[in-house]
Amino acid sequence: MARPHILCVEDDVEIARLLADVLEENGFAASCVGSAAEMDKVLERGGVELVVLDLMLPGEDGLSVCRRLRALSAIPIIMVTARSDQIDRIVGLEIGADDYVSKPFNSRELVARIRALLRRAAASTQAGPSRERGLGFAGWRIDPAARELHDPAGVRISLTSVEFDLLLAFCRNPGQVLSREHLLELVHGGSVGPIERSIDVHISRIRQKIEADPRDPLMIKTVRLGGYVFTPAVELD
């Protein structure tokens, strides 16, 4: 079986070497590059399954790279940030990163994050013989098997893997107040860490895509001290 190919975009040679060693020791194939231009060349060759992206890069910075990648592809992206870069972490998640780890990072945590994202990405290509039926809400349609969301006009709306899983969890539990902890359990077995701390940002991104006015959401409502509730009626498609 081919090893999953992880591309690390990191200009610090020592950190890049550490990343490569950690990934190789845990069964991945690793490529490391130091700039966006080098990243583009590797991606053009194909076969990359996930990008570990440092925000502080020479030339085109990591936030710009993340925005550009997300506009072109749904490839999973894990940002690597300095501990003090809270604003950058939030902005990175808002423009499409799936998760983040902070420097100095824990290698076991990074590997766990990568495996979790690869599992979700693999689910998008594993439509079994008994396809789960799609779900409809307020004119929208979400297809769990194809992992696609279509707006009322039939236009496909791009979602990251985390965004898709969160929206699907809401659609499967309409009218129920879901805490952040419950959403984590529904989405990927309750793992904790960066995704838990950034779940509000992912939900904000979903609102940007499905709400008429994201500042006054009608479909995904915040419940004070409770979590979130999905208000539309949901029907089998």
UniProtKB/TrEMBL annotation:
Which terms are listed as keywords in the entry?
DNA-binding, Phosphoprotein, Transcription, Transcription regulation, Two-component regulatory system
Question: Which Pfam families does the UniProt entry name for this protein?
Answer: Response_reg (PF00072), Trans_reg_C (PF00486)
- Response regulatory domain span: 5-118
For whether the record's keyword set contains Metal-binding, the answer is: no
- Keyword rRNA-binding found: no
Q: Locate the OmpR/PhoB-type domain: which residues?
A: 132-232
> Which residue numbers delimit the DNA-binding region?
132-232
Coiled-coil region(s): none
Q: What is this protein called?
A: Response regulator
